[in-house]
Design goal:
Layout: H1 12-24, H2 32-52, E1 58-61, H3 68-75, E2 79-82, H4 89-96, E3 101-104, H5 114-117, E4 120-126, H6 135-143, E5 146-157, H7 196-205, E6 208-218, H8 219-222, H9 236-247, H10 251-257, E7 258-267
Parallel strand pairs: 1-2, 1-4, 2-3, 4-5
Antiparallel strand pairs: 5-7, 6-7
Helix pairs in contact: 6-7
Length: 271
């Protein structure tokens, strides 16, 4: 994907997207905790998509923002549909696009009839489910966009992480009170951070099952607990080795010291 120079005339949402691209792909070292943790999330997500379907499978990248997953998957040979509520981002993503098949479909994907948008081999939803008031309904809607053998690949902050102070979804008697604030961008818009056991319950209610679940991004990779000041001093190989070590730990330990969760979901087989 192309590197785009900053343009002061851009809308604020595009300026913000460009600042994330600087951290995620273009070499900024201003927040290495963000950069390292994004690199981990990007690799794990692409690997999950590759396991779910092979090119030229049709992929929906939901709430795709600056389109990095869309662009990378298109370059791998997938037939990608980019979607986001912010239509002004389309021009920015187009400027970064070098090759591969991408269709741009801005707006609320759930307002469009399935007959119009078609079905997908993979629906990709990165860092979205924590922004919705009814995650089980959200998964059910995603499932309705899948082909019979399709998969949902999602990532989200991990609710069991020791630095999470948001309530569990199951502790909220009426999640509808959050409907007016759902789909807000960035961490300020987090409503609930999913726990692995809650994700399993939501999936079951939506007629889905978890095929694979990975917990990753320990507090060093994130630069948390004051380690952010250490990261510029540490060789990257040490941070990577530390991350691999914690991913090999028992799940109970991983879930407390790692901030991110990724999962692949499929429809539950008939009983």
């Amino acid at each position: 994907m192309k590197r785009i120079p900053f343009d002061t005339s851009w809308p604020e949402s595009v300026k913000l997207s460009h600042s994330y691209d600087e951290l995620e792909f273009w070499g900024s070292r201003s927040d290495l905790g963000y950069t390292y943790s994004y690199e981990n999330r990007f690799k794990i997500t692409i690997d999950l998509v590759k396991r779910a379907a092979t090119p030229p499978a049709r992929i929906l990248d939901l709430a795709a923002a600056q389109g990095n997953f869309s662009l990378a998957l298109a370059e791998l040979g997938y037939d990608v549909v980019w979607n986001d509520l912010r239509a002004e981002l389309v021009t920015y993503v187009r400027q970064k696009h070098e090759f591969g098949s991408i269709e741009y479909l801005p707006g609320n994907i759930f307002d469009l009839p399935v007959e119009e948008i078609g079905l997908f081999d993979v629906v990709l939803a990165t860092e979205i489910i924590e922004h919705v008031a009814h995650p089980d309904d959200f998964l059910r809607k995603l499932s309705s966009l899948l082909k019979d053998s399709g998969k949902i690949v999602l990532t989200t902050p991990n609710g069991a992480y020791f630095r999470n102070f948001l309530p569990r979804f199951s502790d909220c008697p009426d999640p509808s009170i959050f409907e007016s604030v759902q789909f807000q961008p960035n961490a300020d818009g987090h409503i609930f951070l999913p726990y692995a056991d809650e994700l399993e319950v939501w999936a079951h209610k939506a007629g889905l099952e978890i095929e694979q679940l990975t917990i990753f991004n320990n507090f060093l990779s994130k630069g948390h607990v004051k380690t952010g000041k250490l990261l510029p001093l540490l060789p990257k190989w040490l941070v990577v080795a530390n991350e691999k070590l914690t991913q090999a730990a028992p799940m109970a330990i991983q879930s407390r010291i790692s901030a991110s969760l990724a999962a692949s979901l499929r429809r539950s087989p008939p009983r």
